[in-house]
Each structure stands twice: as C-alpha cells, then as structure tokens.
Amino acid sequence: MKLPKGCTLVVASHNKGKVREIFDLLAPYGITVKGAGELGLPEPEETGTTFAENAILKARAAALATKTYALADDSGLAVAALDGSPGIYSARWAGETRDFTLAMAKVARLLTELNKTDRSAKFVCSLALSDPDGKVEVFEGEVHGHLEFPPRGSNGFGYDPIFVANGMHETFGEIDPALKHSISHRANAFKKFAAAVLA
Ligand SMILES: O=P(O)(O)OP(=O)(O)OP(=O)(O)OC[C@H]1O[C@@H](n2cnc3c(O)ncnc32)[C@H](O)[C@@H]1O
Ligand SMILES: [Mg+2]
C-alpha cells in the first residue's frame, strides 16, 4: 500500500523512546505524525505470539480508533544463549514500572546462573502499517551484536546500554542517536517500510 500524500500517520506506541526514534526516522518524509499517547489511545494487550502479530494488533487498534493510517512497532532483544529470550517479553521483563536496570540485571543473572559464555544477541523490530480499514502490511528488521555488562551510556532506551552492534565497541546507550538510526533493527525495518509505502 502507499501512504496518501498529506495524510496523518498515528504512531501507535506508548514508549517515549520508540516514538522519538520513529518521529526522527519519519522526519525527512514530510508526513504529519501523531503519537498514540497524545491522542489518548488505549494500550492494547499484546496477546500475539510473534513480534509481527503484536505489531499488527497495535496498528489495527489505533487505525480503527482514529480512522487514519497507523504505524506500530513491536520489538525486543533476543539473546542466543537464552533461546531468544526475552524476545516478545522484552518490555514485560522490566515489570509494571518498566525498570530496565532490573531487566538488564535479569539477563546478566540468567547468563551467569546458566553458565553461558556466548553473549550473542540481536534486536528485532516488526513494523505494522494499518490503513483506516484495518488492512495491514508488515516490515521486519534486525541488528546483530553482543551484550556487555555492566550497562553503559544513557542514550536510547530499554536494553540499549548492554547492546554492542557487530563492528562496534560502544553500546547503543553510548553511540550518537543518529548512528543508531542508521543501523538499528528499527532503521532496517524502516528502510523497507519507506521503500514500499513512502516512495
Ligand atoms: O508496545 P508499545 O506501546 O510500542 O511500547 P513497549 O515499550 O511496550 O514496546 P514493545 O511491546 O514492542 O516492547 C519492546 C521492548 O523491547 C525493548 N526495545 C525495543 N527496541 C529497543 C531499542 O531500540 N533499544 C533498546 N531496547 C529496545 C524496549 O525495552 C521495549 O520496551
Ligand atoms: Mg508493548
């Protein structure tokens, strides 16, 4: 599908860090964007079993509620030695208060307890675009790297302070946000979205 010129796009996320990144990624395209938070949209329960299913249900809920196009992002950290955990549970590992210091410590603790030495991990992002009638399209991206402890840096959000992308030495918490926007899982999904929808 193509986004009609001059349309408004609702970014169906309640995560401020994510919304900031999606706004940055959309900035060059001259689309009017609104956040689900500022529109007071409810946060749907993420009952899907994959990133794509959860992205679709969030995009559709916002599109049907606002009768506009909506873009949702479901993403997370998949740690190889933990069989892909926390995966779709990445936000939930941070508890009700979304404490990522706690979530990152849980990852470190599990790796130690299970005697795992492999620190490989990836971030995964599924972007779902819904039209005002609930018709959806999904775009996926990944970035591969490894984890380092203790956490470093205060840029970004979530698990960024423990993730180092392949070929880098600094964590996503330490690098310039513009650099993260050029290589991240979200950037890679976004490139596909932009090519298909914004061209
Ligand atoms: O569902 P919405 O409202 O969009 O917000 P959320 O925070 O609940 O988002 P998800 O359900 O997609 O959960 C993904 C979690 O994975 C983590 N995550 C995703 N992308 C990340 C990134 O670029 N850097 C660090 N952590 C990331 C982050 O902690 C998110 O809370
Ligand atoms: Mg969520």
Automatic annotation (TrEMBL):
UniProt keyword annotations, A-Z: Hydrolase, Magnesium, Metal-binding, Nucleotide metabolism, Nucleotide-binding
Residues annotated for substrate binding in this entry: S13, H14, N15, K16, G17, K18, S75, F157, G158, Y159, D160, K180, H185, R186
Protein name: dITP/XTP pyrophosphatase
EC number: 3.6.1.66
Job of this protein: Pyrophosphatase that catalyzes the hydrolysis of nucleoside triphosphates to their monophosphate derivatives, with a high preference for the non-canonical purine nucleotides XTP (xanthosine triphosphate), dITP (deoxyinosine triphosphate) and ITP. Seems to function as a house-cleaning enzyme that removes non-canonical purine nucleotides from the nucleotide pool, thus preventing their incorporation into DNA/RNA and avoiding chromosomal lesions.
Necessary cofactors: Mg(2+)
Similarity-based family: Belongs to the HAM1 NTPase family.
Free-text remark on how the cofactor is bound: Binds 1 Mg(2+) ion per subunit.
Residues forming the catalytic site: D74
Residues reported in the UniProt entry to bind Mg(2+): E45, D74
Known catalytic reactions: XTP + H2O = XMP + diphosphate + H(+); dITP + H2O = dIMP + diphosphate + H(+); ITP + H2O = IMP + diphosphate + H(+)
The protein's assembly and partners: Homodimer.
